[in-house]
Design brief:
With 100 residues, the chain is mainly α. It has five helices and no strands. The protein has a domain at 26-91. The chain is globular, with a radius of gyration of 13 Å.
């Protein structure tokens, strides 16, 4: 049985802020382009939708949480997503095995 990585969205957003990272539209665009080119978009449709929404207002925490939740729900597709869009690692918890 393959287990999904479950990031606590609020801890992940705090990590982004603490590291002084900002989410950039250009980086989201590159991630979207790579994912649309190399992966079956039906498998990752909720993530693509969340990224498109985030692109409209990158610093919106609600939109960031939607991306984190969509990523969490990918299961084994998480690895493929990070392979083609490594920028999305910004939304991955430092400790993927931590409890919520």
């Amino acid at each position: 049985m393959v287990h999904k990585t479950h990031n606590n969205p609020h801890k992940t957003i705090a990590k982004i802020k603490n590291k002084g990272q900002s989410i950039k539209v250009a980086d989201i665009d590159i991630a979207l382009q790579m994912l649309n080119t190399y992966l079956d978009t039906q498998d990752i449709k909720p993530l693509l939708s969340a990224l498109e929404t985030l692109k409209t207002e990158p610093q919106n925490e609600t939109f960031q949480i939607q991306v984190i939740d969509a990523f969490n729900d990918l299961g084994i597709m998480q690895g493929a997503v990070l392979t083609y869009a490594p920028y999305l690692n910004i939304f991955v918890s430092d400790d993927p095995f931590a409890d919520h």
